[in-house]
Amino acid sequence: MIIRAATSADAEAICEIVNWVIRDTLITFASTPKTPAQIHETIAEKGDDYLVAEVDGQVVGHAYYGDFRSGSGYRFTAEHTIHLSPAAHGRGIGRALYLALEQRAVRAGLHVLVAGVSSANPGGVGFHAALGFAEVGRLPEVGHKNGQWLDTILMQKIVSQGGNPHPDNVTEHE
């Protein structure tokens, strides 16, 4: 397994994974499929902080983080996304992707990572708990997909300790 920064050449494979998640699961509340062009745009926006997992030359997962909320007070907190192909589950690939992403987040000056997990995804809750995330809230019935009301479970992990972040690692987001 290789964890590396995504490139535009990965957009099609990532799109297949994302669209499987959208189409066949309740992991995300999204219902509109993504296009390779949309994935390419996200890869370009995130740069080296958009990661893929590759096994035998095939992209089997992706992960990235982005702003948790707008406003400069939230600039040290990010929400992450991680998806795997069906065949990649249970093989340690998600853990490897997340740990590489966390290292990048810490280097970027982030203090907290947040996960918004669908209540229809108990495996996602267990995955995050095993990585040190704590459940900090539940938003009942905020999602609706396939005729079901779904909760969002908020989980967080403090990824850096100490006082104020180093100013060289901080960017303002408004």
UniProtKB/TrEMBL annotation:
Q: Which residues form the N-acetyltransferase domain?
A: 1-160
**InterPro entries assigned:** Acyl_CoA_acyltransferase (IPR016181), GNAT_dom (IPR000182)
Q: Known Gene3D superfamilies for this protein? A: 3.40.630.30
CDD domains cross-referenced by the UniProt entry: NAT_SF (cd04301)
Record's keyword terms, sorted: Acyltransferase, Transferase
Give the coiled coil ranges: none
Record's PANTHER family? N-ACETYLTRANSFERASE (PTHR43072), UPF0039 PROTEIN C11D3.02C (PTHR43072:SF23)
Q: What is this protein called?
A: GNAT family N-acetyltransferase
